[in-house]
Amino acid sequence: MRALFWQLRLVWPWVRVAFVTCWALPAAAQQAPTPTTRFLALKVVPQHVVLSGYWLEAEYGLPRHAHQSVALTAQLYHGPAGRPNTPGYAASDPGESVRGVGAELRHRLYLRAAARQAYPTGFYFSYGPSFQHFRMTYPTLGWREVKGPNGLEYLEYGRIPNTTTINRYGAAATLGYQAPLPPGRVFLDLYAGVGWRQRHNQSDDAIAQFKSGTSDYGHRGFYFPAGVKIGVQL
Q1: What is the mean pLDDT of the chain?
Q2: 3-state SS of 67-105?
């Protein structure tokens, strides 16, 4: 509950911004200037590195729609399993690792088109689906056969590596702000929102250790995506 409370505090200011900006949307749409060219931007999402996740987003401006774009995010997971939702957890168990892939598709609506920019800046609203596939490796305690110095096999009680798969899909809506940085082609993309996701897995007992919070691999239900993206306009 404490983690959920802090995430709600993070999202609440963006919800207030949404109400204010939605009232101003009709006037902004009439007065907004039109970008001179289409745009293509690439963005990295660094906060997922703590989960051994590497995200790269490609955003493309829709032709003849100055206020709209589509963004596709490719996700690769490879490395130790992270535990950002567990207080005091500095690093994952050496026997825990994750391999996986995922994708997100987002439709963006900018409240104002870019002024003297080759890509949109300012407040935006986005929404769309996502899918993730994880293959988790983790140790359990049990009996296993080992070969002794004399070549004979005997039983030993210890850590045994196990694997399980998790498939997760859902959808989310976010509010964000895209701001250019010098020298102009580099920019920051700040966002926060709310989403829902469902999970399919081999065994609930097997993934019990991977659903400690909304950022964990086995979480399902409501979650609150938030963070920063660093992008460059191509």
Answers
A1: 80
A2: CEEEEEEEEEEEEECCCCCCCCCCCCCCCCEEEEEEEEE
Residue with tokens 């899918």: 131
pLDDT given at position 191: 97
* pLDDT exceeds 90 at position 44: yes
Structure tokens at 35: 């970008």
Mean pLDDT of 32-41: 61
Dihedrals φ, ψ of 54, to 5°? -125, 110
Q: What angle do CA 173, 176, 177 make, to 5 degrees?
A: 165
Task: Tell me what pLDDT residue 64 has.
Answer: 79
Contacts with 130 (C-beta within 8 Å, 6 or more apart), sequence order: 102, 103, 104, 105, 169, 170, 171, 172, 195, 197
Cis peptide before 161 (omega within 30 of 0): no
Spatial separation of the C-alpha atoms in residues 9 and 4, rounded to whole Å: 9
pLDDT at 20: 42
Better pLDDT: 91 or 6: 91
Residue with tokens 């825990």: 96
User: In this prediction, what percent of the chain has a pLDDT beyond 90?
Assistant: 42
Distances (CA, A) of 53 to 16, 60, 98: 31, 23, 9
- Length of the chain, please? 234
Query: Minimal CA–CA distance to 92: which of 106, 74, 80, 108?
Result: 80
Owner of token pair 């250790």: 209
